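Methods — Computational structure assignment.
A single polypeptide chain was analysed. Its primary sequence is given first, followed by the predicted tertiary structure written as structure tokens.
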Amino acid sequence: MSIKRRDFLKLGPAAAAGASILAAPAIVKAQERFNWRMTTTWPSGLPFFQTGPGSATDFAKRVEEMSDGRIRIRVYAANELVPAFEGFDAASAGRQVQLNHGCAYYWAGKSFAAQYFTTVPFGMTFQGHNAWMNEGGGYELYEEVYEPFDLVPLVVGCTGVQPVGWFRRPVESLSDFRGLNIRMPGLAGDIYNAIGANARLLPGGELFAALERGAIDAAEWVGPYSDRALGLHNAAKNYYSSGWHEPATSTEVVVNREAWDSLPGDLRAIMRNAAAACNITSHVWLEARNADALDDLINNHGVRFGPLPDDVILALLEATKDILSENAAKDSLVRRVHESYFQFKSRHDRWQENSETAFQTQIRDLGQTILG
């Protein structure tokens, strides 16, 4: 039963005071401020991941500005607060830090399904991957996979297609991968192992030294701009393309569930919107720089760039099918993620073949360029 305005006024100051008391918790909640810590898996100063548009520090800055200072996030690079690959557990525990910035495929040992939310070998590129995440049920599955770890995931960046990486010696055939020590995370590492290589997971800050001294024979990182920043071209000169392993590599911020639940609704919305802005900004920022960086590596640093041999790609494709199928058969959650991803990919591929692919192929076959 509602109380008419004139009746409410008759109740006098006591009723007004009661209404104020009822409203007080909401007002206090809206005014509450949060000072959080975020660890990352990246070295201090690393472009794209740690600094620059769409990075961990950019995400923290956007959240602070959009919330008018109600959320302040202090960012710690790898090893400043915890080791590079311990931030996930630290955020899960929620005692020392509330967030971690990394990539979901680093946590394959915790859940095989996590890897699908970073990228899938021979999978979708930026457009398809993000369409699946936001409109194809990917985000809902992402949250379900992380629920046992008391974490809420947010996609905050995407590199786009990544080159295969840097090799100390040229690759001429599939046999060159037998016994090859290569830095490769996630599913692609398992696939390399299946064709006879030895995949290793190393943080970005250790790649150059490991490759230069021969502790590893090959390493992948991100792409021309980011790889040049690490100096990988000074440790190896054979750089291979195709992007089979990471056609759309997404970065993430994971938020401790208790910390997330403590936020009022508007601040949760700000976190999600800051993440979405970083996802787009990071991709276009890197896309704008990779072409010039690749030209520089080839023309000024003696880098040899080209595709892997066909027999290697075919072997990797077969190994990918086997590994994905085996793991989907063993775990119901992995199977649901796998089926969701590839059912969406099948639909999206039909559109992509008749849009971007058709556009590029016809122009290429005619031997023409568009407006210069």
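Note: Residues 1-10 have pLDDT under 50 and may be disordered.
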